């Protein structure tokens, strides 16, 4: 065990693309900066969707299909096991839009104080552009998919694009304000507001730990770092 569980009751863990990388889901900011042939900034904005809805729907349709071919890895399962036995509050905030954490927790139901938030949305959901109402969506979305919630509405991916407000920020900020252990796993810290969570946790007096393949640009903001593939470091950390 790498940490004293008794000294920490309120835990917040932030995950990013690195936690799903070994499941076969590509990360966003690999060396070439490309994501399925696109710069993420060119497809993950409301402006891109208005300009070229076919390109954006196709981008998310391909990712939704790919999700059916991947599985949770040892890091997702270690976090689910931790959630099953954690006695305090445990907020798992993921920036990932895949459902790999959800599947791991479904196989290992969490204790009462646990909550999972997808702050950047979910690939397997769509929302009505007119009403904001959310529905499950496992297949492809048509370019102008009619909304079941509004006669003139169209469905779009339930994804938080650049310039849009991430989801459930009130709950996340409230948990950070009282957390005493904050861990960021597999995220580059390139995107705000998630990149600023470590500062909110530090302000609350929390111990802060970065777990990543390699030290990130934000390494100095953390008390400690643990480096290597998530499928090895996360189970070791959670043990
Ligand atoms: C491994 C590994 C292995 C690899 N094991 N590790 C302040 C300053 C400057 C700009 C802004 C600012 N505030 C807001 C902005 C604007 C903008 C922003 O941050 N822009 C930046 C480019 C600078 N932010 C926004 O627009 C956000 N909205 C917003 O701020 O609203 C206003 C607001 C104000 C105040 C409070 C609250 C709100 C919205 C951001 C939406 C991000 N959306 C995306 C795409 C949609 C989802 C999708 O299509 O999938 O979300 S962008 C993309 O980046 C995706 C990710 O969730 C996100 C983070 O990426 P992540 O997960 O960190 O991945 P990578 O690839 O960057 O890193 C992977 C890491 O894993 C690396 O470190 C590897 O080393 C590691 N790794 N293999 C362990 N095996």
From TrEMBL:
The active site is at residue 120. It is an enzyme of class 2 (transferase). Residues 1-239 form the Deacetylase sirtuin-type domain. It catalyses: N(6)-succinyl-L-lysyl-[protein] + NAD(+) + H2O = 2''-O-succinyl-ADP-D-ribose + nicotinamide + L-lysyl-[protein]; N(6)-acetyl-L-lysyl-[protein] + NAD(+) + H2O = 2''-O-acetyl-ADP-D-ribose + nicotinamide + L-lysyl-[protein]. Gene3D superfamilies: SIR2/SIRT2 'Small Domain (3.30.1600.10), TPP-binding domain (3.40.50.1220). The keyword Cytoplasm applies. Its EC number is 2.3.1.286. Substrate binds at residues 60, 63. Keywords: Cytoplasm, NAD, Transferase. The keyword Cell division does not apply. NAD(+) binds at residues 16-35, 95-98, 186-188, 212-214, 230. Transmembrane segments: none annotated. It is found in: Cytoplasm. NAD-dependent lysine deacetylase and desuccinylase that specifically removes acetyl and succinyl groups on target proteins. Modulates the activities of several proteins which are inactive in their acylated form. 2 residues (Tyr-60 and Arg-63) present in a large hydrophobic pocket are probably involved in substrate specificity. They are important for desuccinylation activity, but dispensable for deacetylation activity. Belongs to the sirtuin family. Class III subfamily. This is NAD-dependent protein deacylase. It comes from Brevundimonas denitrificans.
């Amino acid at each position: 065990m790498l940490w004293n569980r008794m000294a920490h009751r309120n835990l917040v863990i932030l995950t990013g693309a690195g936690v799903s990388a070994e499941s076969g889901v590509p990360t966003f900011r690999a060396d070439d900066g490309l994501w399925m042939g696109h710069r993420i900034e060119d497809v993950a904005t409301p402006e891109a969707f208005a300009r070229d809805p076919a390109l954006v729907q196709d981008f998310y349709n391909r990712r939704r299909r790919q999700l059916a071919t991947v599985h949770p890895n040892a890091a997702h399962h270690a976090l689910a096991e931790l959630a099953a036995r954690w006695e305090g509050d445990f907020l798992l905030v993921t920036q990932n839009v895949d459902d790999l954490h959800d599947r791991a927790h479904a196989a290992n139901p969490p204790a009462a104080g646990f909550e999972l938030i997808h702050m950047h949305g979910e690939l397997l959901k769509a929302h009505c552009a007119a009403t904001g109402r959310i529905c499950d969506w496992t297949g492809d979305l048509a370019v102008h998919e009619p909304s079941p919630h509004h006669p003139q509405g169209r469905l779009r991916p339930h994804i938080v694009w650049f310039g849009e407000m991430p989801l459930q920020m009130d709950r996340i900020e409230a948990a950070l304000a009282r957390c005493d252990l904050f861990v960021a796993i597999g995220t580059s810290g390139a995107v705000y507001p998630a990149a600023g969570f470590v500062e909110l946790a530090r302000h609350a007096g929390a111990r802060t730990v970065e777990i990543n393949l390699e030290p990130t640009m934000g390494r100095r903001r953390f008390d400690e770092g643990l480096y290597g593939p998530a499928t090895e470091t996360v189970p070791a950390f959670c043990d």
